[in-house]
# Entry
Amino acid sequence: MKVLVTGAAGFIGFHVCHRLAASQKCEVLGVDNLNAYASLELKRARLVELEKQDGFRFVQADFADAPAFAGLQENFRPDYIVHLGAQTGVRYSLENPAAYVHSNLVGFASVLEAARRRPPKHLVFASSSSVYGADARVPFREDDDAGRPLSFYAATKKADEAMAYSYAHTHGLNLTGLRFFTVYGPWGRPDMTPLLFARAIRDGTPLRLFNYGRYQRDFTYVDDIVDGVLKVLLHPFVGAAGEPTTPPWRIFNVGHQQPVEMRRFVQILESLLGRPANVELLPPLPTEMPATCADLTRIHAAVGYEPKVTLEDGLRRFVDWFQRHDRPA
Ligand SMILES: NC(=O)c1ccc[n+]([C@@H]2O[C@H](COP(=O)([O-])OP(=O)(O)OC[C@H]3O[C@@H](n4cnc5c(N)ncnc54)[C@H](O)[C@@H]3O)[C@@H](O)[C@H]2O)c1
# Structure
């Protein structure tokens, strides 16, 4: 089967492509524009790993360039599309909202339009737990009201879900949005806490804990995320008999359902790295939710998703990668 993966040089895209190509059952086309956000060096290093796999091919392209992306899609003729490319980062959306308009709104519209012209069996796209915003009550359920996003990043992800609904409704495209919960693991992003914190502990630099370390996050190991993506991808929407008007559109949480306080997260990292952190306790940030926690009832019922990797085990694997690959600046 042929799978087109956007954001292939990014953290989650890398892991999805790697798993698909390693299965030796897929032809994988990875697309990424290799922008400089969250380390071009790391994106290139991920691609070097991916290009060791026979079933993987890479094209550098911007999916917001509608004719170029439609051409790629038309030539490759994917059975499935996994759309993971996006402008990521919650805090950066305060500084550069235009980047989010470009990749997450214009870019997603371009991906949807290319898929409409030549529909894959299923298009799975990344949303985010951050859509739950100010209305959130833990654990977060997919049918909770999520109308008040706390950051522009979250607003664009919520807009993607609505854009997808309209394409499912008007064109019958089979679309599923996945709300990922704080993903971590080897090859992770340098703008996210696991790598930021591991570097700070190794280098003895200040480690900033907002909300005095009391934020709770539902950290989800990247292999569990990949399991969720692939289980969902291979189970497109099937409407119930007698409901031909139901649009083939779904939203699922993909998380761990075991939130941890950031103070505890730092303690585990300290013990794995064998060094104390130089912690700076700071007040809450306006873009951050006090706690995140996925309710996994819906995805479990639909495709049997169950996260398997404990935080201690996942952080051990992350630190093992970190110590082998991340050199001090
Ligand atoms: N990592 C997490 O904890 C997390 C949590 C919730 C949601 N998500 C979502 O999951 C997806 C993957 O996240 P990630 O952590 O791998 O992010 P990432 O930033 O590592 O990867 C995104 C990739 O998309 C590429 N990209 C951006 N705009 C592009 C464009 N216009 N054309 C082509 N390529 C483009 C980037 O170069 C990057 O390599 C994103 O949609 C993100 O919003 C991630």
Notes: The longest strand covers residues 122-128.
